[in-house]
Amino acid sequence: MAAMREEHDVLGDLMRGSLDHCVKCTICETVCPVSNVTPLFPGPKYVGPQAERFRTPGELSPDASLDYCSGCGKCTQVCPQGVHIAEINTQARARLKERDGFSLRDRVMARPPLSGRLGTPVAPLANRVLANRPVRRLAERLVGLHHEAPVPRFAGRTFQGWAKRHRSPEGVRRVAYFHGCGANWYEPDVGEMTVALLERAGCHVDIPRGQACCGLPLQSNGQFDAARRYVRAMAAALAPAARSGVDIVGTSTSCTLMLKREAREILGLMDDPDLRVVSEHVYDICEYLVALHDRGELRLDFRPLPLTVTYHAPCQQQGHGIGKPALELMALVPELRVIDMDATCCGVAGTYGLKREKYDIAMKVGANLFGQITAERPDLAVCDSETCRWQIERATGVSTVHPLEILHRAAGPA
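RESULT FIELD:
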């Protein structure tokens, strides 16, 4: 416990260095999607820079409202003074969770490989159970998982199983694919389409063995020690590719952001050699494809796709600071009509919106987005983040896909 607290103090100092730059302009309060819909969260400035001044190395946060921060990162993105507000809040929440203890729900929910390994072999049964309303209401009472929350369906197969059988052809460049938990357990078709599209673009695709979880769900739920173990193992699996100069691409914007920046800043892993080299070589898949296109190296001819789709850039994707590369890519598809949504957030924030006490807040946060999508009556909704896709589809009834699926459809048969 003492060692954990000392590590908290060291990594806290990294973010607290920005604390005194706060001028209380309240811009972060204005954009915060959570404080705008509930009084339970007083806002990022109050629980972040303002409250942090009263936290000392030997004192824990007395304010439980801190736990209602969704960790979307909007406050950090808009701060004109460069204060790491969301990161300060995340570290303070970990101290709060350490003091109060971790629930069984949060321990299990924050470990996707555990649920994936348990549910995949019995996917038909597991999916029926998860869709059963009496069972879901019982689960809400017993463990606190809201009965209406958008729980994903197990695919019944894994992307890793497909990857073991796949042989990528030689290409003009090598790229490594970081598939994450979502593509492995729930959406293996996203992984397969990504590999196919990269190969069509002239890439030889490596799929490093030993991939599991990047640790983001654990970090978001305050379980920093376990998160560090997960992200170090993930970085070790990807580091050989990075050290050989191979670019690493991922289809989950939250997971790629975790490896790019969040784990190093929030978990205090700035000096981890594997994570450092991986962070220098990891890209969001759309970011990478746009870079190829800008260099004239994207070898894809898209056929017409006469569809109307809405596009929502999730919070974690915006945290990359790369604009909206998915929009640039979809603009290359003839006859595709893309409507960019201007809503801030879908509300789910990974596991946040699945919890009994936060589900209604998440739905209020996402109400504007859901209303915009429903009003447009699109053929499909498009979003880069898997948890956001599940939230949008559950709330609107509109089939919601990764941008890569649109590009894959437009690329036509291999």
